[in-house]
Write a structure and sequence with these properties.
The chain is 73% helix and 7% strand. It is mainly alpha-helical.
């Protein structure tokens, strides 16, 4: 059996390849836009500084992404209820539609790959993986 370090490297690489492949094949918006909209959809409205921190990017770059998303009507900038000097960014219904459409397209692409490329035994083995990966992900989210 591989060591935990070896297994971690293999998982990181394979999961990354799947994520990049699905996004590259089906996403309708650039990765920075997708990541920003995904965060807003999952976690709710937040400031540009919060978005930049959560995405691990510079404030200036995140601000540019927000401007581009705003121009497309995918996000809206509102004044914070707590501090009127601060803007809070929220996803619009159109932005949510884009996120949901791209998520569905990624899931469809992956489902086709699973159905066409894996045997029944391999699909059964793969079905046991999501709960394990969720347990690992919870460690990061704490």
């Amino acid at each position: 059996m591989d060591s935990p370090d070896d297994l971690a490297d293999e998982l990181r690489e394979s999961i990354g390849r799947i994520v990049r492949a699905t996004r590259g094949k089906v996403d309708t918006i650039p990765p920075a836009h997708s990541a920003t909209l995904g965060l807003l959809d999952r976690q709710g409205a937040m400031t540009i500084a919060d978005l930049a921190r959560k995405r691990g990017v510079k404030h200036q770059g995140q601000s540019r992404t927000i401007g581009e998303l705003e121009e497309r009507g995918l996000v809206v900038r509102e004044t914070s209820a707590e501090d009127r000097r601060v803007s809070v960014i929220g996803i619009t219904p159109t932005g949510r539609d884009v996120v949901l459409r791209d998520r569905r397209a990624r899931a469809d692409w992956l489902a086709t790959a699973i159905a066409e490329d894996l045997s029944a035994d391999e699909r059964e083995m793969l079905a046991r993986m999501p709960p394990l990966l969720h347990r690992i992900a919870r460690r990061v989210e704490e």
